[in-house]
Write a structure and sequence with these properties.
The complex is a heterodimer.
Chain A: E1 2-13, E2 19-27, E3 34-44, E4 46-53, E5 59-65, E6 71-82, E7 88-90, H1 112-119, H2 127-141, H3 155-161, H4 166-179, E8 184-191, E9 198-199, E10 203-210, E11 214-218, E12 230-236, E13 245-250, E14 255-264
Antiparallel strand pairs in A: 1-6, 1-14, 2-5, 2-13, 3-6, 4-5, 7-11, 8-10, 8-12, 9-14, 10-11
Chain B: E1 12-13, E2 16-17, H1 22-29, H2 33-50, E3 54-55, E4 64-65, E5 69-76, H3 78-102, H4 107-110, H5 116-120, E6 142-144, E7 146-151, E8 154-159, H6 168-181, H7 183-188, H8 197-207, E9 219-222, H9 231-241, E10 244-246, E11 251-254, E12 257-262, E13 265-269, E14 271-274, H10 278-281, H11 297-302, E15 307-309, H12 320-323, H13 326-334, E16 341-342, E17 346-347, H14 351-359, E18 364-368, E19 378-379, H15 385-397, E20 402-406, E21 412-417, E22 420-429, E23 431-434, E24 439-441, E25 446-450, E26 464-471
Parallel strand pairs in B: 5-26, 8-16, 9-10, 9-14, 14-15
Antiparallel strand pairs in B: 1-2, 3-4, 6-23, 7-8, 11-12, 12-13, 17-20, 18-19, 18-20, 21-22, 22-25, 23-24, 25-26
Helix pairs in contact in B: 2-6, 3-13
Classes of the chains: A alpha+beta, B alpha+beta.
């Protein structure tokens, strides 16, 4: 499927900004799952200072806002050809070893609630079935509810409050999978939704490393493994690692953020 | 004096004065003790005037305190030093190869030489360094290896200090003080110079500049600020090298590089000798609350456009559990046997070792695997029953957090007291400079001395002092 993405992230500053940085992971990479046909990154109100590959192999950019800027607009987009491999990326490895993806992070530390949730699927012999069951169990326990959680909500907290969005689902999945002894990671990206071009936010799901298959994706929020409607942007051990945009600002006043995202065929 | 003690005195043996100290001893015997006492006071005044002080962590009043200086030099013969220096160089080479491997292919883990858990559980392991090679392939631009001696040819490495070794300013000041106090001594005895260190440090840092550096590399020293206990050293080294001393807020990202604010606008920086800890280096990558670092510096670093000395994440090799594998690490990367010995180390994470350590606490030195500066350690022979019992509980609660070593019979060197010379235990911290082309080790280093009679703890934070360290020309 040829998926077309147009994604604008606009920060508006209450007072002219003195110094602000945004780190972006908004460059999809080629894999068995997808081929990037064309992709561009444009910045208004700032400069793309550098681009590099991070320790997870993500293509990262660092943007510095212009001094005195009232707003910073980051526009990315292009076309990506995707394949339906039932979410199986396969045995593709960067330098980060598998054991690294078995380690918890601050966002994905398993407390008692998460451990209990993971234990409910500990009895499966077939790993694929086990992780589909995990995905279902998470969505049962933590239904999709908007605006109840935020970017710093931990997996354990999201289970506790029994509500969350795709970011929480993915954090919970990787935390639980690690609890079950498997390497797991967080994936950020885009999802094409039939009949709906305009979207509120980018998407997130998880990948777990299963014996013979390698990395396999699970989208808890939608109860499926990713198919040709998914575009992978970045990976990491949790939502922070794979955040499409993260930044830091010095100066007075508040900032507001508007995201505009169109994903279409 | 030292003749009947079990300790190796580096100056006097039963057979008489050891060779490296012969000329000094002859000179000393001709001195008037009252004049030396006066000189000793002069030295203290000199240090106060230059402002060389040290802030002791973990003390309530935390006032700035002078590290006591003893005027009797610690002397090594040229041949003793040559062997030591070869050993340090070998170790430093191995550590750099180890760090590159750990952050890239991890061959040493695959080979099962070092257990994976020691990296996976290592707080100093920085994932952000994976799949990356610093400019020139150098991780530890400055290393301060702690070495102790127990006999004529018995030298042991205690710690490698690949992270941020401090103390080189004391080495330089101690020599300067000795030269001022006893100029005649240096005309009688030929001692190898240490005064080139700042020049060599700068040259070594410049040689490690990133490939896109234009013209002479621009070097800065990054300090956390005047409240840091080693601020004196930061400003001293910047001054001696003739480079800028900066704080995080002086630096920013400009045109894809790191730039420093100057009176004439911003100027590109090529090499940062940073004395800010990893966790505070980049709020965008590590501790987001840090005001001491430079936001985005890791992005510029991974782009290959700045040199950070020492590289982030080098603390992995300072871990004391990793230390216990250092002979294997040296052999794995250099193909040679380690020249310098390791102290026998019991890893309390291993049940048999833990049992042994708990049985023998009163004879062992127990250290935290991530600890430094002599904090949080137990010196069994010097500890009270209560202290030992408290430590026993800590050990049982978190065995993997500790290693234990036999109490070494550290060599002694005399210090000057009102009653004449008196032996005190010493260690040695040579400083190695690593650049892509070479490893340069300043002759001697910093000798730390436990000023309290019988004490084995030389750390300045625990009441130790320092001595000038001489390596004889021949």
């Amino acid at each position: 499927m040829l998926i077309s993405v147009s994604h604008q992230t606009t920060y508006t500053y209450e007072a002219p900004v003195s110094y602000a940085l945004q780190r972006i992971r908004l460059q999809p990479c080629n894999s068995a799952l997808q081929t990037v046909r064309n992709w561009s990154i444009d910045v208004e109100g700032g400069t793309l200072e550098t681009r590099y590959a991070d320790h997870h192999g993500n293509q990262v950019g660092l943007i510095c806002a212009e001094k005195g800027a009232q707003s910073l607009k980051i526009s990315v987009g292009g076309e990506v050809e995707t394949n339906d491999l039932s979410g199986i990326l396969g045995k593709v490895y960067g330098r980060a070893p598998l054991w690294y993806f078995q380690q918890p992070t601050a966002l994905t530390e398993a407390g008692p609630l998460l451990s209990d949730l993971a234990d409910t699927v500990s009895g499966y012999a077939n790993e694929l079935e086990q992780f589909h069951a995990l995905s279902t169990a998470i969505l049962d326990k933590v239904p999709w509810v908007l605006n109840e959680t935020h970017s710093e909500t931990t997996a354990e907290e999201a289970v506790g409050q029994a509500s969350g969005v795709c970011q929480d689902h993915a954090n919970i999945f990787v935390a639980a999978a690690r609890r079950l002894g498997k390497p797991a990671r967080y994936v950020s990206g885009y999802l094409f939704m039939e009949g709906r071009i305009n979207q509120d936010a980018s998407h997130a799901w998880a990948e777990v490393h299963i014996g013979d298959l390698g990395w396999v994706g699970f989208d808890v929020s939608n109860g499926i493994s990713p198919d040709e409607r998914y575009v992978r942007l970045a990976i990491g051990r949790d939502a922070h690692d794979a955040a499409p945009v993260s930044g830091l600002r010095m100066g007075e006043g508040d900032e507001s953020l508007i995201v505009s995202l169109q994903v279409q065929q | 004096m030292a003749e009947n003690t079990p300790f190796f005195d580096e100056m006097r043996r039963a057979s008489g004065v050891r060779m490296p100290y012969e000329d000094y001893s002859t000179w000393f015997d001709k001195q008037d003790v009252a004049r030396l006492a006066q000189k000793s006071e002069e030295a203290e005044r000199f240090f106060r005037r230059t402002g060389i002080t040290f802030n002791v962590y973990g003390q309530e009043d935390a006032e700035e305190r002078l590290i006591p200086f003893d005027l009797v030099p610690r002397i090594l013969s040229n041949s003793e030093w040559t062997k030591l220096a070869r050993g340090v160089e070998q170790r430093v080479r191995a550590i750099n190869a180890f760090l590159h491997d750990i952050y890239n292919r991890q061959e040493i883990l695959r080979a099962g030489v070092v257990p994976r858990s020691l990296i996976a559980s290592n707080d100093a392991f920085l994932p952000q360094m994976m799949d990356f090679t610093p400019p020139g392939g150098v991780y530890t631009h400055i290393v301060g290896t702690d070495i102790v001696r127990t006999g004529e040819n018995e030298f042991y490495v205690l710690e490698d200090n690949a992270r941020t070794p401090s103390g080189v300013s004391y080495m330089l000041e101690n020599r300067e003080t000795m030269l001022q106090m006893f100029p005649e001594l240096f005309s009688q005895i030929k001692v190898q110079r240490v005064s080139d260190y700042p020049k060599n440090l700068r040259a070594s840092l410049e040689a490690s500049a990133p490939p896109n550096c234009e013209g002479r590399p621009f070097v800065v020293v990054l300090t956390p600020g005047i409240h840091n206990s080693a601020y004196y050293e930061h400003s001293f080294l910047a001054d001696q090298m003739g480079v800028e001393l900066v704080e995080g807020h002086d630096l920013r990202i400009l045109d894809g590089r790191i730039a420093v604010r100057t009176t004439r606008g911003y100027r590109t920086v090529d090499v940062i000798y940073r004395r800010v800890d990893d966790a505070f280096l980049d709020p965008l990558s590590f501790n987001p609350q840090s005001m001491l670092g430079v936001p985005g510096i890791m992005d510029i670093y991974r782009s290959g456009s700045i040199t950070i000395a020492n590289a982030p994440g080098t603390g992995v090799s300072d871990d004391k559990a990793i230390y216990s594998y250092m002979p294997e690490i040296v052999e794995f990367y250099t193909g040679e046997k380690a020249i310098l010995k390791n102290v026998e180390t019991h890893r309390c994470s291993e049940p048999d070792s833990l049992a042994y350590v708990l049985e023998n606490l009163s004879e062992l030195v127990v250290k935290e695997v991530h600890g430094s500066g002599g904090y949080g350690m137990l010196v069994g022979p010097a500890a009270s029953k209560e202290e030992i019992e408290t430590f026993r509980q800590k050990l049982k609660a978190r065995p993997a957090n500790y290693i234990a070593q036999p109490t070494l019979s550290l060599s002694t060197v005399p210090i000057f007291t009102e009653k004449g010379l008196a032996p005190r235990h010493v260690d040695l911290r040579p400083f190695a400079l690593v650049s892509p082309g070479e490893i340069n080790i300043v002759p001697g280093g910093l000798t730390r001395v436990a000023l309290t009679e019988g004490s084995l703890v030389v750390n300045s934070s625990q009441g130790g002092g320092t001595k000038d360290t001489w390596v004889l020309e021949s």
